[in-house]
Amino acid sequence: MRKVLRPVSPPEFLTSPRVHEEKAKILAYLRRDQRDRLQRRDNLNEELFFDTSLINDLRRLFQNKCAFCETRTVSYGRVLHMRPLRSVYDSTKVNSDYYLWLAFEWRNLFYTCEYCAKAKLDQFPVVGVRAPYLASFEDVQKYEVPLLLDPTYDEPSKDLDFHSNGLVVGNSKKGLATIEVFGLNRDELVSARRLRIQEFFDSLVFEGKEAPLSVMLDPDSEHLGALLSVIKKISKAWSFNGPPIRGNGSSLSRGFIDAWTRASEQERMQLPGVLDELQREAQRVLTSPPKFDITEDDGLDDVYQPKMKEGEISTIKISNFKALENLTLTMASSRRASTGWPSLMILGENSTGKSSVLCAIALALIGRKEAAKLRKYIPDLVHSVDTSRHDQLENRLVDVSIGFHYSEHVASFSYAPELREIRGSDSPATVVIGYGPRRFFDYKKQHLPDGAAARVRTLFNPLATIPYPGAWLAEQTGSTFNTIAAALRIVLALDEKDELIRYGDDLAVRANGRTTTINSLSEGYRSVFVMTVDIIRELLDHWDDIEQAQAVVLIDELETHLHPRWKMQVMTALRRVFPRVQFIVTTHDPLCLRGMDDPEVIVLRRDSDSFIKPVEDLPSFKSMTAEQLFTSDYFGLNSTTDPSTSIEFARLAGDVVRRSPEGNLEVAPAKETEELINRLVLGDSVSEQVVQEALMKYLEQREAKKGDVLPELREEAVDAVIKALTEEWEG
Predict the structure, then answer these.
(1) CB 352, CB 605: distance < 8 Å
(2) CA dihedral 219, 221, 222, 227 (to 10 degrees)
(3) Which residues partner with 499 through β-bridges?
(4) With pLDDT > 90 as the criterion, what percentage of the chain qualifies?
(5) If you average pLDDT over every residue of the chain, what do you get?
(6) Which domain of life is it from (predicted)?
(7) 236 alpha carbon, distance to own chain's centre
(8) Could you report the per-residue pLDDT of 235-292, keeping only the tens digit for each?
């Protein structure tokens, strides 16, 4: 980290009408009565912080590097709010609206890498009290004593001391907190700094071997702050004729380059000894780092708020698990143009292993001991080597492993059929909640048994029930009830004037002068309501605030009981209510894709050898209609016409369809059908007729082929159209 001079004037985007309109909406929300805000979420449009011009302005300000760890971050940098948008954590409570009013404050925005953004989350520890509600940024700076370094306001070199082994040590409580919050001593970062410092040392000792000093000390050089810190140490220990090297930043680097350039050969020969002493000093710091007396008023407790044991899921590897012989799925570490954590939606025809993927993930994440509680279901998970009948005689080892971003830990599950032995991780990797396709809620059951296995049982047992949370909900008061009400407003899509109120032992919606209890709502409403409350109940056992809660939620056949309007908004609503929960769901309904990103949707399909694999090179579904989705590679239908209509046409025409001895379908059209097809010409122009002819050939081949060649067929069809149109044009 190094000092960066921020321009006084904000970039053009932050003064645009879009931002002014959004700021007005934020202030209108924040100026509402506090009791009114307690059961509402702000409607901040966080996609504005993914605006390309804003990101580019910040990227140029910090010279293509993360503001905090100085890793070069060109492609996937993001906007970070130093003072968070909401839910800032204090040792005794969560301040839900701090610091939303600074959402578009130029001096509060930074360019950061993915890791630093996720490491910081909503942390902003301060010594003593926070600034008054809705204080100006100038007043915030006057009132607060932050424990995080601001590289555009502070001089980081006073609080951070970098050493030749790549480690950084805090010279103060502020430096210590900054290192802890941003993970500035994470392994890969320490290695990168150590390598960079070694390159710098080599350039001093072996002239001409490495890049010139002017290049290594250029403002856009990676880990420049670490190099400048080391230069200060060298300057103090190196004896040379000339003025002392002083200053910070560019003045320090210019002074050192000038001294090194003017130094005699004898003076330069001192440098290897100086560098060796720096190496020894680094080793001493490693064994005896500086310590500080921590008091309750220091605010350092806020740095150690609860965090998930592992990060987001990165890879899912499944072997010999029911129909899945060898399947690998990957998940991104973040969304590219939206807030919240990545999720996964799995599509595919029946018997392509969608539900099996959810079961496999659950068993690996809950750990060996909890998986053993589901032992009665596990023998049925062994892979069947024959697709035409159930054949488990080879007794292959069932194996599941799940990797995590920014972590070396792997959550695992395996089952040896011959030994009937369950192996895997010793403890749950994270909070896991699973819902099978039949979500039966038992009004007589109030609580689940202890342990993670009980929270995923419905994925394995279709008759297992979920406790109805009505009694638990009736017990909730104060901030917990307000948290639940604010979440349900989003999930139930209540209008601004609607209210969620207590009605005896039940909850009710008051809208348009009418009061309707939750139990009186439709099955779809109640299904989503109960599932949402069940998730909230589980998360509140581990976290103080559901917006900070991190977990994995598995839902099989998401669309169950839902009206089409709800299907279109269910993922958006769930992800907004639980922004740090990874949802992994299956569906047969294209409407449920709304709220997902293109890389988050996969299709499982059997290839020509009946192996289940994800379909590659799927097109973007963002602008597709539901009907287009049905006929795309996501769902694979040739037409959305009623199948009985096509059969009736064939029957009337006297067409016959039979299966050949080789197993292929053969169509024997009637004479009348052949004559009709021969006379039929589609399209009003030559170009349209060429396209139509190519399309018909593509659909014929598509119907006959299996999953692994479909993308190739599409590409061949497009090439054929281009070739035909070119020939027509040239002719």
Answers:
(1) yes
(2) -80
(3) 510
(4) 47
(5) 85
(6) Bacteria
(7) 46
(8) 888 888 888 888 888 899 999 988 888 888 888 888 889 999 999 988 887 777 666 6
CATH 3.40.50.200 fits 313-631, yes or no: no
List the beta bridge partners of residue 530.
none
Please say whether the beta carbons of 358 and 400 come within 8 A: no
Q: What is the mean pLDDT of residues 586-592?
A: 91
**Residues 253-268 pLDDT 10s:** 999 988 888 888 888 8
Q: Give exposure, 615-625, as e/b (b: 16+ Cβ within 10 Å).
A: beebeebeebe
The span from the CA of 486 to the CA of 256, in Å, is 58
Q: In angstroms, rounded to a whole number, what is the distance separating the alpha carbons of residues 691 and 720?
A: 9
Is residue 25 within 8 A of residue 496, CB to CB? The reply is no
For range 44-57, the mean pLDDT: 95
Q: How far apart are the first and last CA of the chain?
A: 65
CB 332 within 8 A of CB 365: no
User: How many CB atoms are located within 10 Å of the residue 101 CB?
Assistant: 22
Distance CA 717, CA 697 (A): 8
- State both tokens at 86: 């909401």
For residue 554, the SS3 value is strand
Query: Residues 327, 399: contact at Cβ < 8 Å?
Result: no
Provide the H-helix boundaries in 521-669. 523-540, 564-577, 626-631, 643-653
Alpha-carbon separation of residue 665 from 668, 703, 704, 713 (angstroms): 10, 10, 8, 19
The predicted pLDDT at position 95 comes to 74
**Residues making up the chain, counted from first to last:** 731
Residue type, 137: F
Beta carbons of 363 and 424 less than 8 angstroms apart: yes
Model confidence pLDDT, tens digit, residues 98-109:
999 999 999 999
**99: preceding bond cis by omega (within 30 degrees):** yes
Please indicate whether residue 17 or residue 406 has the higher confidence score (pLDDT). 17
Provide the residue ranges of all domains of the chain, joining segments of one domain with +.
Answer: 12-153, 189-287, 313-631, 643-728
474-498 as b/e, with b when 16 or more CB fall inside 10 Å? eebeeebbbbbbbbbbbbbebeeee
CA angle 433–439–445, rounded 5-degree value: 80
